UniProtKB/TrEMBL annotation:
This is Phosphoribosylglycinamide formyltransferase. Its EC number is 2.1.2.2. The lineage of its organism: Bacteria, Bacillati, Actinomycetota, Actinomycetes, Micrococcales. Transmembrane segments: none annotated. GO terms for biological process: 'de novo' IMP biosynthetic process. GO terms for cellular component: cytosol. It comes from Microbacterium album. Residues 4-181 form the Formyl transferase N-terminal domain. It catalyses: N(1)-(5-phospho-beta-D-ribosyl)glycinamide + (6R)-10-formyltetrahydrofolate = N(2)-formyl-N(1)-(5-phospho-beta-D-ribosyl)glycinamide + (6S)-5,6,7,8-tetrahydrofolate + H(+).
Length: 197
């Protein structure tokens, strides 16, 4: 089975959905570790599933590069076949991206290239668009600029708040993420191939 390491910063609800999918008999990937840049609430989901966790606290390091070096050592030890950033709210420096790309994915709560960055849901709401979406991409050196592996539209409703809209997007993100991981694991989706669309 494809071994997957997941990195989070927050509540890890998408991580939990991936853990549930991966625990189904016959799912072609398994989650081998969950890491975080702080003591994230979502680490509890990994513990529920008996998956090892690790924390490399961003704040304990003098620079992004020093933090990423330590994170990189942990990932090298784990040696996963795929890394999934599932709500990791830190940019990874080019050296770490280069080490893993294209076997490093990110989920994003907008229809990229629309509304990249840390506030994809808020920015879509502020722009007054009638639809936004969810995307799963390969991480590259830009901010949410990597090749798009899957994406789907999600409507914005007139009374939406950031929370209500994000709550409508997340189930779509989960479904796309689980499907992309499955297709990579079966070889149906080849990350090494030049075009992903
Ligand atoms: C998800 O919507 C994810 O796409 C987003 O954070 C949320 C994490 O939710 N990531 C980004 O915005 C990255 N720029 P979760 O912790 O409940 O899975």
């Amino acid at each position: 089975a494809l071994s997957v390491a997941v990195l989070i910063s927050g509540t890890g609800s998408n991580l939990r959905a991936l853990l549930e999918a991966a625990s189904e008999p016959g799912f072609p990937a398994r989650i081998v570790a969950v890491g975080a840049d702080r003591d994230a609430d979502g680490l509890a989901h990994a513990r529920d599933f008996g998956v090892p966790t690790f924390v490399v606290p961003f704040r304990d390091h003098p620079s992004r590069e020093a933090w990423a070096e330590e994170l990189g050592r942990r990932l090298d030890d784990i040696a996963p076949g795929l890394i999934v950033l599932s709500g990791l709210m830190r940019l990874l420096p080019p050296a770490l991206v280069a080490r893993w790309s294209p076997r490093i994915l990110n989920t994003h709560p907008a229809y990229l290239p629309e509304f990249p960055g840390a506030h994809g849901v808020r920015d879509a709401l502020a722009a007054g668009v009638s639809q936004t979406g969810a995307s799963v991409i390969v991480v590259d050196d830009g901010v949410d600029t990597g090749p798009i592996l899957a994406q789907e539209r999600v409507p914005v409703l007139p009374d939406d708040t950031e929370d209500s809209l994000h709550a409508r997007i997340k189930p779509v993100e989960r479904r796309l993420l689980i499907d992309v991981v499955r297709r990579i694991a079966t070889g149906e989706l080849d990350l090494a191939a030049p075009a992903h669309t």
